[in-house]
């Protein structure tokens, strides 16, 4: 496939917002005109091996014929229909698969259109549940620091309150409760006091807390931190003891990313409410899901309104449901466990030399996630160009250089990614070391 389309970059810079970008000092936007398997194709014909699977969603790679065929078939018959008072085969099919794949307790499915909305829905479910159970004062959410759950207002309220992306909104954001982030590394037994602050908050405020929300095992955009399954086990027990719902946000970790189908399986626990997104459709179109237990659904139905108060226009969109159903079929073929295990082993081996690079603080790998944590924040624009020059797409943030590739990536492609990570980390480390207090090196500005 060759690229022929030319992109109007001047119009793009002047008129189009990109994520977390200034309109006066915008980061460069590279023109992508096509994608194939694990590669992005630029307007000048260059191919970049995608190390991010388009923000962790395209787990099957680009242009998978099975998903495309399902979407084309759906598009020809019913691309969209309102979900109020109407149902359709694609919504039923994907919901059946989600109920079968997730834990036994999760039996009810709410189909929305983005991960942030899945979190909003989960939080509203928790509040309405307690209204139906005669405890309307339970309206606060407890979470941990360094978390990330989305960009809408309720989701922002449970993102990291100090170093997170949404601190500038101040009191416009609902003030929630925060415990320290888990300290115990993944694979280690729980540090004795790791849950003490969480328990103290639950003991003091459980009468006003509706739910705890947490990203299981991996804090993604907040810190790229992998923590102990024992922490989740203890947290589940605390929620039961203090009669608080547990919301697990698996938008980033679901569908195999951490080496288990769902990250909560590392701890062998169940959620009361579960948020899914990103890889749900294989990254082909936006769809998210919030699942809950029978008990949560009954509590909501017993609330004063008698109904759950949410209903997006594109809820249960048939085209998105068809893509998700096809993506889940591919997941259920069960090739991903071997793929993800091989990716993890190769990343462990090939990223290990980064520990000897000046400026590197830590190297972490779990499932199909590989992270080089730098001591200093990095300049995203400069690093991005360095990666593109090496034929790969890796988009760092803060002081994290990471990859979450498609499960279908080849060993050769993965090696090109890991080698580029080592080279760019060395450049960033050297420049940060040389820079005193100015911005001459790879110091963050976006």
From TrEMBL:
Its cofactor is pyridoxal 5'-phosphate. One of its GO terms (molecular function) is adenosylmethionine-8-amino-7-oxononanoate transaminase activity. Substrate binds at residues 55, 148, 278, 311, 395. It catalyses: (8S)-8-amino-7-oxononanoate + S-adenosyl-L-methionine = S-adenosyl-4-methylsulfanyl-2-oxobutanoate + (7R,8S)-7,8-diammoniononanoate. It is an enzyme of class 2 (transferase). Pathway: Cofactor biosynthesis; biotin biosynthesis; 7,8-diaminononanoate from 8-amino-7-oxononanoate (SAM route): step 1/1. Its main location: cytoplasm. NCBIfam families: bioA, PRK05964.1, PRK07986.1. PANTHER family: ADENOSYLMETHIONINE-8-AMINO-7-OXONONANOATE AMINOTRANSFERASE. This is Adenosylmethionine-8-amino-7-oxononanoate aminotransferase. The keyword RNA-binding does not apply. One of its GO terms (biological process) is biotin biosynthetic process. It comes from Shewanella insulae.
């Amino acid at each position: 496939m060759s690229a022929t389309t030319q992109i109007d970059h001047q119009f793009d810079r002047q008129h189009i917002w990109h994520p977390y970008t200034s309109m006066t000092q915008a980061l460069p936007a590279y023109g992508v005109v096509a994608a194939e398997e694990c590669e992005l194709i630029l307007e000048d014909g260059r191919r970049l091996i995608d190390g991010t699977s388009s923000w962790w969603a395209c787990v099957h790679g680009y242009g998978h014929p099975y998903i495309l065929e399902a979407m084309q078939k759906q598009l020809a018959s019913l691309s969209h229909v309102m979900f109020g008072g109407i149902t359709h085969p694609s919504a039923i099919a994907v919901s059946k698969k989600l109920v079968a794949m997730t834990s036994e307790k999760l039996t009810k499915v709410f189909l929305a259109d983005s991960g942030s909305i899945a979190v909003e829905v989960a939080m509203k479910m928790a509040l309405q549940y307690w209204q139906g159970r005669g405890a309307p004062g339970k309206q606060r959410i407890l979470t941990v620091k360094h978390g990330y759950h989305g960009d809408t207002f309720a989701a922002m309220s449970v993102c990291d309150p100090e170093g997170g992306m949404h601190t500038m909104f101040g009191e416009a954001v609902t003030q929630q409760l925060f415990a320290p982030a888990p300290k115990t590394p993944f694979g280690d037994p729980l540090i004795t006091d790791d849950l003490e602050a969480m328990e103290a908050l639950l003991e003091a405020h459980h009468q006003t807390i509706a739910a705890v929300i947490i990203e299981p095992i991996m804090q993604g955009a907040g810190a790229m931190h992998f923590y102990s399954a024992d922490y989740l086990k203890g947290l589940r027990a605390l929620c039961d003891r203090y009669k608080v719902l547990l919301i697990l946000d698996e938008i980033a970790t679901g569908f195999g990313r951490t080496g288990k189908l769902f990250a909560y399986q590392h701890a062998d626990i169940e959620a009361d409410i579960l948020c899914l997104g990103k890889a749900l459709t294989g990254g082909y179109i936006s769809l998210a899901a919030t699942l809950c237990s029978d008990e949560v659904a009954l509590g909501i139905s017993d609330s004063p309104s008698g109904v759950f108060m949410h209903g997006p226009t594109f809820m249960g969109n048939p085209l998105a449901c068809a893509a998700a159903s096809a993506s889940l079929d591919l997941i259920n073929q069960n090739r991903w466990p071997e793929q993800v295990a091989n990716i993890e082993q190769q990343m462990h081996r090939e990223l290990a030399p980064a520990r000897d690079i000046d400026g590197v603080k830590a190297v972490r790998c779990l499932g199909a996630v590989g992270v080089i944590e730098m001591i200093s924040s990095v300049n995203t624009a400069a690093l991005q160009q360095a990666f593109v020059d090496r034929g790969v797409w890796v988009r760092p943030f803060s002081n994290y250089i990471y990859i979450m590739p498609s499960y279908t990536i080849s060993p050769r492609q993965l090696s090109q990614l890991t080698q580029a990570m080592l080279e760019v980390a060395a450049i960033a480390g050297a420049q940060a070391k040389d820079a005193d207090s100015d911005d001459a090196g790879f110091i963050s500005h976006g």
